[in-house]
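Exercise 7. Given the encoded structure of a 173-residue chain, write a plausible sequence.
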């Protein structure tokens, strides 16, 4: 073996020994534990739906009604802090008969309950649900909406359509 080849072999051996020594030292300083942070996000979801009963669109205003079911309202929330539901009556708790030009001809007063509790339709918006308990799982509640009114004989009411629009709104707290 020539002198150059011997020096080359010695140099390669020295470099390899140095690499092995550095690798062995770095293992001596290796960590014995490490952390990994995992995280996910679930957005808040609230929804409300109203299913009208057949009676809602065919009220017999000539005969009195008491706690007549006119709708089921379904509330859904996954909000961990709770939710509220508000109700607005377009005519402040009156079935309103209007002319083609929008002039009020006659108001027909009614009252309402939501899930068995009285609702003050003249005070809009009216909070009808406040669910503040911490929620561990999403919740769905179906609640009954009823109305009551005193019937008026046909010969004492102007003809026409008597109506009110109710708006239910749900919001996370």
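Solution.
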């Amino acid at each position: 073996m020539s002198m150059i080849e011997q020096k080359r072999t010695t140099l390669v051996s020295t470099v390899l020994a140095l690499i092995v020594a550095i690798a062995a030292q770095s293992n001596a300083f290796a960590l014995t534990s490490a952390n990994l942070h995992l995280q996910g996000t679930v957005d808040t979801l609230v929804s409300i739906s109203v299913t009208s009963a057949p009676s809602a669109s065919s009220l017999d205003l000539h005969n009195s009604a008491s706690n007549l079911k006119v709708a089921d309202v379904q509330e859904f929330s996954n909000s961990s802090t709770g939710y509220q539901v508000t109700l607005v009556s377009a005519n402040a708790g009156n079935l309103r008969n209007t002319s083609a030009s929008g002039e009020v001809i006659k108001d027909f007063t009614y009252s309402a309950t939501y899930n068995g509790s009285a609702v003050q339709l003249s005070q809009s918006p009216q909070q009808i649900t406040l669910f503040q308990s911490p929620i561990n799982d999403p919740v769905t509640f179906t609640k009954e909406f009823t109305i009551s009114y005193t019937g008026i004989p046909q010969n004492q009411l102007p003809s026409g359509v008597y109506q009110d629009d109710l708006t239910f709104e749900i919001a996370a707290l």
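Remark. Strands lie at 46-52, 65-77, 83-89, 94-98, 104-109, 111-114, 117-119, 126-131, 139-149, 166-172. Students should compare their own answers with the one above.
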